[in-house]
Amino acid sequence: MAGRAEPTDVQALIFDVFGTVVDWRTSLIDDLTAYAVRRGLNGDWTGLVDAWRQAYVPSMDEVRRNPQAAFIILDDLHRRSLERLVDEFGIKGLTEDDLSYMVTGWHRLKPWPDVVSALTRLKTKYILSPLSNGNVGLLTRMAKNAGLPWDLILGGDVFGHYKPDSETYLGAARLLNLPPEQVMMVAAHNNDLAAAQALGLKTAFIPRPTEYGPLQTLDFDATGDWTVVAKDLNGVADALGC
To answer: Average pLDDT per run of 10 along the chain, which is 242 residues long?
Structure first.
């Protein structure tokens, strides 16, 4: 449990979502496994989910390498990656409706157990928003499904950039009419916090040591000098006096 943080002038908290707020891996594996049973489909759903997530960063990097092209939202990147992976995994008999259902699985991700109670506490004192690489439509439906009490929703398509591009962190502060030092980035990923800290934002780290299941190799502990380090989001709320 984190101790009480030193007083700050933070007015808004912005959150990484995939892995920090929601358990994408368990949610997707459970969702696709149950759907496959209903549809009579066969496949390695755990392997597919892990490979799908591994395609996440390379797909965003491809967007970054082509700034002259129109920005591609995460839903569309997920669809492109899925079409390739179902072929690689030899999953047969999928219809357009099946593919659409699978892609919108990212809209149905479930929060970690501490999340809703902690966000509810933090909302009494701070403005809360995701700062996610997800698109606004994805994040809005996720919030509706999961009961996430955001004050507003900021996704990659708002800025036409994906984290860790500076336009995302600074863009969030700008839209909130706040200087960066009055905004705190909350994440379970040290590299996300390092990018935010370099631009003047405050930072809060919580570990999610089962995010990637047996494939997890990073982010078991804080590796930077973050403003707050806590065991979970309720610990962040404790540290910030909520």
So the answer is: 57 98 98 96 96 94 90 97 96 95 98 98 98 98 98 98 97 97 98 98 98 95 97 98 94
- Is 159:63 a contact under the CB 8 Å cutoff? no
74-88 and 56-64 helices cross at what angle (nearest 10)? 130
Tell me whether residue 228 is exposed, middle or buried, using C-beta atoms within 10 angstroms of its C-beta: 0 to 12, 13 to 18, 19 or more. buried
Helix (H, G, I), strand (E, B) or coil at 61: helix
- pTM equals 0.94
User: Of 6, 65, 39, 43, whose CA–CA distance to 227 is shortest?
Assistant: 6
DSSP per-residue letters across 160-215? T--TTSHHHHHHHHHHTT--GGGEEEEES-HHHHHHHHHTT-EEEE---TTTTGGG
Segment 129-154, tens digit of pLDDT: 999 999 999 999 999 999 999 999 99
Ordered DSSP codes for 19-52 = TTTB-HHHHHHHHHHHHHHHHT----HHHHHHHH
Q: Which tokens go with 102?
A: 């699978």
Tokens of 239: 């540290």
CA distances to 25, 32, 43 from 37, rounded to whole Å, are 18, 9, 10
- Report helix, strand or coil for 4: coil
The DSSP output letter for 18 is B
Task: Note whether 220 and 202 are within 8 A (CB).
Answer: no
